[in-house]
Design a protein that fits this description.
The chain is an alpha/beta fold. The protein has helices spanning 16-28, 46-49, 63-68, 96-102, 111-116, 136-145, 156-176, 199-210, 224-231, 236-241, 253-268, and strands spanning 3-7, 34-38, 79-80, 85-87, 125-129, 147-152, 186-195, 220-221. The protein contains 11 helices and 8 strands. The two termini are 29 Å apart.
């Protein structure tokens, strides 16, 4: 495996799951072997986005069972989508924290990392999409990936949230170093998302860059077509190619380029993989 990435923001509604879906699709379309792990038990997760919402309910094996039982193989949960493989979420994950506490699970933050070892040689990238709320699922995502891609609003609220995320990551890194001296958590990229034309977007970007944050040299515009693709249970690349959907308008084509640029950043491990603003 080349790299594992967690997309994370403590603020909901910043387009994290849409970004995870489309970056994964962009990687898959470059013949990369991608496994997406959906850790969000809530409605509207990545599993819903790609049309497997029926797997999130019912009495079936799910990721929570794998995290609680070392004998269960994550491979049995994997489903194939158009451009990547998926470990779907399940509503049972909502109870995972209390279940781990009841079972006195040791090193509970390392359970996902341990579970993924069995398939690490079969994929080039793991893309993990946890819930926004800080809990044991987020801990597992961060420990498993150790590289974080952060979608952010280019507002004062978004700027403050980055500072809080950095503090959280620093605190977690210090804590986990007690178990693994080599443990490091790093921000791969800060991605301005749902960007508009107001001056506040430019001003906030300049503040983040001045503070040395690894901000991408482009921002993902706010476009209704992303909602249309979600409604059709497609990633944007599928939507653009499908005979059952409308053609992308000329001004919407930048979204495909943005997700391809993000895929390049994931591949190269640095925001310097793209140098010009789209």
């Amino acid at each position: 495996m080349k790299r594992a990435i967690t997309l994370w923001s403590e603020s909901g509604g910043v387009g994290k799951t849409t970004m995870a879906t489309n970056v994964s699709a962009a990687l898959g379309r470059q013949d990369e072997r991608v496994l997406v792990i959906d850790l969000d038990p809530q409605l509207g997760s990545l599993t819903d986005h790609v049309g497997y919402q029926e797997l999130k309910t019912g009495d079936r094996d799910h990721l929570g069972h794998v995290l609680l039982d070392d004998e269960k193989d994550i491979r049995s949960l994997i489903v194939e989508t158009e451009d990547f493989d998926l470990v779907p979420s399940h509503e049972g994950l909502a109870n995972i924290e209390s279940e781990m506490a009841a079972r006195n699970t040791s090193l509970r933050e390392f359970q996902l990392r341990s579970a993924l070892k069995s398939v690490a040689g079969e994929y080039d990238y793991f893309i993990i999409d946890p819930p926004a709320t800080l809990n044991v699922l987020v801990d597992n995502a961060l420990v498993a990936a150790r590289n974080v891609l952060i979608p952010i609003e280019l507002t004062r609220k978004g700027s403050i949230s980055i500072e809080g995320l950095e503090d959280t990551l620093d605190s977690m890194e210090r804590g986990f170093k007690k178990f693994d001296d080599s443990f490091e958590l790093g921000i791969l990229a800060v991605v301005p998302n749902e960007v508009g034309d107001s001056n506040i977007y430019r001003d906030t970007r300049e503040e983040l860059e001045t503070d040395g944050k690894p901000v991408t040299p482009f921002g993902v515009r706010k476009r209704d077509v992303l909602k249309e693709a979600w409604k059709k249970q497609m990633n944007l690349f599928e939507f653009a190619e499908s005979d059952e959907t409308r053609d992308l308008r000329e001004y919407e084509g930048d979204l495909l380029a943005n997700f391809e640029q993000l895929a390049r950043i994931v591949q190269q491990g640095t925001v310097n993989a793209v140098e010009v603003e789209a």
